[in-house]
């Protein structure tokens, strides 16, 4: 089948679909990943076809931040969504038998798929279906079950409302959700009992390993020159934390691998750019990160404890999950050199964090998050052939 995967956002919203796309292609499907131009090398290096969606999420963030007021910021975002609408419509029109969509563009993807009379399923990297068991990511915790459910419906309504003008301009009607598969482990987020039968938790979808990638010799040498270091990186977060990080490394008395293009390497630190987490994280003593869904999964897969430093959207949700799993200390109320150093030392000095991380990793290793996606496509293919 010709499978179109539609996603929009940061690198973390794209990378998991590269590995999933490879699995689908090995099963005989033809996969096109629709994503922004910024992620073209990531998609093409995985051997997948890339349909370029207009817009740049990084430039969008900068433009909204620089906007002179809330009305101007909303106008910038509306223009981004308008372009995205044309892009998704063009991607489906280019040829697809099924559409698989990330959460962000889901209302748009479903409407376009419905126009072309092809099936559409959600591929969500964070919980995206209302439940009484917890509030949706990005919403305050501690609510009652009914308040959790109401917050989930509010989230969905708000997401759909973003696309009302775009759908109207394109002459599209809102479409039902269809099946939804969540690409995270049930060890981390057990499937809520009140989710419909069409909603699954599959296990993580892992990013593709870059073809021909080899670690820099200088990094290999640094790792061999002493005890396992601590990884510190904040993904697509743009705030400069280099001074806090440098001071925390010194206060904690650790070696560190720091993912940054702003920091200055200290005597016990090594700066890296884009290094595959599946190679790097198992060699770390702990991982300090922003608690994005993909990095959270990579740390759990590696079996190392974490120091979550969440900022926005779903990051506080994953940070809380890491703490509840027993693989991370509580998220810091504020990020200072002292608080970061204290959390790093807690990860290293309390064996329970590493022991629990190893237990979780062993359970995750038994899961195959791509299998339910392949099963769904097989059912759709069979229905198409016999329908």
TrEMBL record:
Domain Erythromycin biosynthesis protein CIII-like C-terminal: 271-368
Glycosyltransferase family 28 N-terminal domain sequence ranges: 3-59
Pfam families membership: EryCIII-like_C, Glyco_transf_28
InterPro entries (UniProt xref): EryCIII-like_C, Glycosyltransferase_28, GlycoTrans_28_N, UDP_glucos_trans
Signal peptide: none
Regions annotated as coiled coil: none
Name under which the protein is recorded: Glycosyltransferase family 1 protein
């Amino acid at each position: 089948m010709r499978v179109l995967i539609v996603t929009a956002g940061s690198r973390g919203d794209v990378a998991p679909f590269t590995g999933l796309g490879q699995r689908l292609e090995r099963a005989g499907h033809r996969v096109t990943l629709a994503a922004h131009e910024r992620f073209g090398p990531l998609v093409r290096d995985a051997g997948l076809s890339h349909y370029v969606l207009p817009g740049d999420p990084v430039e969008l963030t900068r433009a909204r931040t620089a906007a002179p007021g809330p009305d101007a910021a909303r106008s910038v975002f509306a223009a981004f969504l308008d372009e995205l609408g044309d892009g998704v419509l063009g991607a489906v029109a280019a040829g697809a038998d099924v559409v698989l969509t990330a959460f962000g563009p889901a209302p748009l993807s479903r409407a376009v798929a419905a126009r072309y009379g092809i099936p559409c399923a959600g591929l969500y990297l964070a919980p995206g279906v209302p439940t009484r068991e917890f509030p949706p990511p990005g919403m305050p915790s501690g609510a009652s079950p009914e308040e959790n459910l109401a917050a989930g419906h509010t989230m969905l309504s708000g997401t759909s409302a973003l696309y009302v003008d775009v759908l109207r301009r394109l002459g599209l009607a809102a479409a039902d959700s269809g099946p939804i598969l969540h690409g995270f482990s049930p060890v981390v987020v057990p499937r809520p009992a009140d989710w419909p039968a069409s909603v699954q938790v599959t296990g993580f979808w892992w990013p593709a390993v870059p073809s021909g990638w080899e670690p820099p010799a200088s990094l290999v040498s640094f790792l061999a020159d002493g005890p396992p270091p601590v990884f510190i990186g904040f993904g697509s977060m743009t705030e400069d934390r280099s001074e806090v990080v440098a001071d925390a490394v010194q206060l904690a008395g650790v070696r560190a691998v720091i993912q940054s293009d702003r920091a200055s390497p200290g005597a016990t630190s090594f700066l890296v750019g884009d290094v595959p987490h599946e190679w790097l994280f198992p060699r770390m003593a702990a991982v300090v990160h922003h608690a994005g869904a993909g990095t959270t999964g990579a740390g759990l897969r590696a079996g190392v404890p974490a120091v979550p430093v969440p900022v926005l959207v779903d990051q506080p949700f994953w940070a809380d999950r890491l703490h509840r799993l027993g693989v991370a200390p509580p998220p810091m109320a504020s990020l200072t050199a002292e608080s970061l150093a204290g959390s790093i030392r807690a990860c290293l000095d309390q064996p329970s964090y590493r022991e629990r991380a190893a237990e979780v990793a062993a359970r995750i290793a038994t899961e195959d998050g791509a299998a339910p996606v392949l099963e769904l496509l097989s059912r759709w293919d069979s229905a198409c052939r016999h329908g």
